[in-house]
Amino acid sequence: MAVTRSIRRTSPITLVLAAVLSFGFLFFLLSPSSSSATATSTKSRQDDAADHPLSPPTKPFLKNQEYRSNGQRAPPPVVHYHMNNLTSTADPLANGERVLILTPLVRFYQEYWDNIVRLSYPHELISLGFIIPKTKEGNAATSALQAAIATTQSGPIDDRFASVSILRQDFDPPIDSQDEKERHKIENQKIRRESMSRARNSLLFTTLGPSTSWVLWLDADIVETPPTLIQDMASHNKAVIVPNCFQRYYNNDKKKMDVRPYDYNSWRDSDTAQALAQQMGPDEILLEGYAEMPTYRTLMAYLADTGEERKQNKVIPLDGVGGTALLVKAEVHRDGAMFPPFPFYHMVETEGFAKMARRLGYESFGMPNYFVCSLNASTRSDL
What we know:
It is a single chain. By secondary structure, this protein is an alpha/beta fold. The chain has a single domain (93-382), classed as Alpha-Beta Complex (Spore Coat Polysaccharide Biosynthesis Protein SpsA, Chain A). Helices cover 31% and strands 19% of the residues. It contains eleven helices and twelve strands. Strands 1, 2, 3, 4, 5, 6, 7, 10, 11 and 12 form a ten-stranded mixed sheet that branches. It has a two-stranded antiparallel ribbon with strand order 8-9. The protein is elongated. The N and C termini lie far apart (109 Å).
């Protein structure tokens, strides 16, 4: 009786609504997803897909994939790198060793680009990497660099590089002006060089690949090197090696163009410098080339023989290195040697790198009679 009474009291409208809702629920569960939404999602993923399985992890690998006989998409191939077979030898050209040229860049100089294009090392074995600050000046440098890259990479095959990467810094530069005098003020050195260390490390850790044998650090204002720079430096088969960096200028006394030392960060240590370091606080750093901080180190800049008959292949041991043109075996970086953005034995950036490399068992060397030249803005028209 209870059941019959309940049914009798139920409104026909209620039953109709219940039936409609039930049908709608079943249709929702059983119907396929919207084809338009699926198509849009698939197209978005394909447009953002990478062409190669060794793509950044944020890029899905969807393009140019093969399908199996059953119509299912095959997974991307697994690529094996035999790191024990990777070499960095005195004859990188004969062994086909890949070189990564890295440059922190604030201003773009066409002379810099023209110089690396003239390098005689096979360009198909050279990859380039740049890191540029997100500033107005950095934006201009990025545009100029991209234009130069487009010209070279669409030009003669032999001039084209294997790959080019451009990074933008995710932190602001510590000083606004990039004028030479402002950059080299002693009060700006610690924050400036700590910032440079962060930029160098970001660039290195992002671009160093499993097939890289050598890393050449080249400053953006290095506008003149021998075309055989890579082969000449690598021929000594040193883990860390640096040439002497000079700058061309007009000598008023001689009434002609001359050269002068530019990079003072390549040196042999002294007892005076070590004594100064022992008296410093944990956050203080030693700086080279400043009268306010005499270290009496032996500077490679002053050991140069500028004569025509000089022995360019002369090599000397160093305790500190500059970064204007610094060649490093990739294994040194892989073993953990980076550019400390903090006082490391009272040194930062490239000098701190040399100290860190030594702690890992790698010695640093310099070529006092082998020259590269930095841009001098006041004599730029004479280059």
